[in-house]
Amino acid sequence: MKNTIVPSIGIIRQNISTVDFENAALQLFRYQYENNNVYANYVNALSINASDILRLEEIPYLPISFFKSHEVICSKSAQPIQSTSYEQVFQSSTTTTGVPSRHFIKDISIYENSFSKGFELFYGDISKYCLLALLPSYLEKGDSSLVYMVNKLIKNTQNPDSGFYMHNYEELADKLRQNEAKGQQTFLIGVTYALLKLAEEYPMELKNTIIMETGGMKGRREELMKQEVHQILMNAFKTKAIHSEYGMTELLSQAYSKGNGIFQCVPWMRVLIRDIYDPFDIGLINETGAINIIDLANTYSCSFIATDDMGIAFANGDFEVAGRLDSSDIRGCNIMAAEL
What is the pLDDT of residues 31-43, one digit of tens each? Predict the structure, then answer.
């Protein structure tokens, strides 16, 4: 099997049939097996003959931990990659003792295309919004894929009032009040602990504002259930729903929830649930398990990722996030990460 032709990025579009998605996924699998040494070694370690993979259900998923321990990128060379091999590298947030994930991006335009079309699909034309971002911990880090996305979206609003806020909560509260007074549609995206601080110190009624939390306490506050966080925010801002974004350093696509913690994928992304004790039992419906993701936008890294998140998938393709796997729950293929 040899597939050196890079699959078309035209798959990032609003309408993708089941057949088109499967064909694109199989094409990407073949390309990434031939060009991504880390993924190829992993597939081989599973004693899987890549030529035998003919259906979507047969594609193996790379444990997400490989993004911490290996350079997951399509490259002909087996040597450590050079800076000329990629345009951008995103790094996850982590504790001082933790090892961050790194995602090497060979073509940043694919990411920009993915998040721009994804936002438009869920929320319409970005130019109708004033986008306010409360992401202090991510801004401090400097190499966040979330900050890169939000920065581009802010620019695309072409609204001079759009922008980032660090710890200047009073200034942000004033801007929200001004936008409400003039009926400006506003999109407030923030990390959870910062939104809770804003809610405590500056509660107000927000009729024209979509509030989206991206998750994350990062040890700054007591951990709360997602439902508790949303209820606190809804009470403080007198809104009917809190939206959420599901994304990560290792992905170039996002899923969105418009309330109740139920997420929908963009058309070029799929979430499947695996049994936590049998990583090859994939496709559980209405049962809690670990989340596997197919992200067709990950053209030059790996499109097939076994995450450490827990969740439930529904028959219509929507899903819910139910927390994180304990290290004691991780079985099977993750063990190989230390061996390859």
Answer: 999 999 999 999 9
| β 209-213/243-246 pair status | parallel
Pairing type for strands 102-105 and 88-91 reads antiparallel
- Residues 53 and 29 sit within 8 Å (Cβ to Cβ): yes
* Residue 80, pLDDT above cutoff 80: no
Structure tokens at 93: 């947030």
Q: 3-class SS at 240?
A: coil
| Number of other CB atoms surrounding residue 294 within 10 Å | 24
CATH numbers and ranges of domains, the chain: 9-85+268-338 (2.30.38.10), 109-257 (3.40.50.12780)
Summarised one tens digit per residue, pLDDT across range 85-137 is 789 999 987 655 578 899 999 999 999 999 999 999 999 999 999 999 999 87
DSSP SS3 for 297? coil
Count CB atoms within 10 A of the CB of residue 234: 16
